[in-house]
Specification:
The chain is mainly alpha-helical. It is built from 11 helices and 4 strands. Strand 1 and strand 2 form a beta hairpin. Helix 3 packs across helix 11 (280-309), helix 6 (168-179) crosses helix 9 (224-262) and helix 9 packs parallel to helix 10 (267-276).
């Protein structure tokens, strides 16, 4: 909430105290207001402009309800409301197939204390980091190459369309069949699934490069490395960031399937074990832990980079 502040405004020959919120609107002009005013959003609530106590009470109730409505849309309160609904549904179902939030929290605490959850989560995050870095580096290089050379782009465009439409499950199975149930096959399956998306995004960004800036770099005899660093990369940065954010959401889903089908550790492997035992509490606990970690990566790394990329915009 914004800070309340006081301001005196003349009206009808007397001075009145106006309490208003700094909500981005222009300050009320002198003589336009006659009383104690609350500004919530774009709505004005004038309290002392009437002598009727009942009317004052009604206006105060409107102010309270308006504040509650604004607070109700806070993300943390939304999550709390979801937890309450989950608890009510679990109490109504009274079944181990729908455990309560407290039961899931207890399992989550136990798994963290035993060391099982940190171990398997670390394995999955290591696979995520390796496959993400490989897919982004290869995809960025190939995307720039196709964007800068139209003939290569026309030749490989059908390849991209083909790989974009192959189901992830098929790619994972083929990698395990061809290369065996080894770590390199798991990483390759994730990279192959993500690579076409990165290439397409970076290719479109390369096509949108400012030709005038490229010609200026050529006139001033910039080398390839200097042109890439000072001309191409600043323009591609938003596209790279977009590919990173969508890639993170895609890769961690694929990694779970990869671990479920052919690995003996990781979050996907654990979820498969819990599925065989119908342990819904453990499934939800591991899922919640992984989602929280991915959201922390999004909020702590990707969103600050996004703000940095858009810092020149008003």
């Amino acid at each position: 909430m914004s800070i309340l502040r006081n301001r005196k405004i003349r009206g009808s020959g007397s001075k009145f105290r106006v309490v208003y919120r700094a909500c981005g609107l222009a300050a009320p002009r002198q003589g336009h207001l006659t009383g104690e005013l609350f500004i919530i959003g774009n709505t004005f609530y004038n309290i002392t402009s009437t002598r009727c106590r009942v009317h004052r009470v009604i206006i105060l109730l409107q102010v309270v309800l308006a504040l509650k409505m604004r607070i109700a849309f806070h993300p943390l309160l939304s999550i709390a409301a979801l937890a309450v609904l989950w608890h009510i549904a679990a109490m109504a179902a009274a079944s181990p197939l729908l455990p309560s939030p407290t039961a899931v929290a207890a399992v989550l605490t136990r798994e963290i204390q035993s060391g099982q959850l940190p171990y398997h989560l670390g394995i999955t995050l290591a696979r995520l980091a390796g496959s993400f870095a490989l897919a982004m580096s290869l995809g960025t290089w190939l995307g720039i190459l196709l964007g800068r050379h139209p003939k290569l782009d026309r030749f490989f465009d059908s390849w991209l369309v083909l790989f974009l439409n192959i189901p992830a499950l098929v790619t994972i199975i083929l990698c395990y069949v061809w290369f065996g149930l080894v770590e390199s096959a798991a990483i390759a399956a994730v990279v192959i699934n993500k690579l076409p998306n990165v290439i397409v995004t970076i290719r479109e960004g390369t096509r949108a490069l400012d030709r005038d800036l490229l010609e200026m770099a050529e006139v001033y005899r910039f080398g390839r490395l200097k042109t890439l660093r000072h001309v191409v990369w600043p323009q591609l940065y938003p596209f790279v960031l977009a590919a990173s954010r969508t890639g993170l959401a895609l890769i961690w889903k694929i990694i779970l399937v990869v671990e479920l089908l052919g690995r003996s550790n990781g979050m996907g492997y654990q979820l498969h074990l819990f599925f065989q035992m119908f342990n819904v509490s453990a499934i939800l606990a591991y899922t919640l832990a992984f989602v929280v970690v991915v959201q922390l990566i999004e909020l702590g790394i990707l969103k600050p980079l996004d703000r940095h990329a858009r810092r020149w915009r008003r």
